[in-house]
């Protein structure tokens, strides 16, 4: 039971980190040249999951901007707001699932301790 709670706690930490990354990407969606970050998850050596955050160096769309008498080519952010919102919803649901696991594990431990008395 303790290992299930430990695993769920690592999940909470990992998906919390993913929410931070998504929030950072959304905050910079209108920043010219901004490169988004992606969160992937790897198995932790002691059980559970670890978040790995990597920068996505793919190019964003380019537009022409007026700069006085000249036009300047500017690269926009490579962040897709729709994709970020989906990632945000997934992280939120995964956080809720891990919280539910912790609550269930806590209730089971309480029942086991009651039986031991």
Please render the helix and strand layout as text.
Layout: H1 2-27, E1 37-43, E2 49-55, E3 62-67, E4 70-75, H2 81-116
Antiparallel strand pairs: 1-2, 3-4
Helix pairs in contact: 1-2
Written account of the structure:
The chain is of the alpha+beta class and 117 residues long. It has one domain (2-109). The protein has 2 helices and 4 strands, in the order H-E-E-E-E-H. It has helices spanning 2-27, 81-116; strands spanning 37-43, 49-55, 62-67, 70-75. The strands form 2 sheets. Strands 1-2 form a two-stranded antiparallel ribbon. Strands 3-4 form a two-stranded antiparallel ribbon. Helix 1 (2-27) packs antiparallel against helix 2. The chain is rod-shaped and about 85 Å long. The model has no long low-confidence stretch (mean pLDDT 90).
Strand content: 15-25%
The coarse silhouette is rod-shaped
Number of domains: 1
Helix content: 40-55%
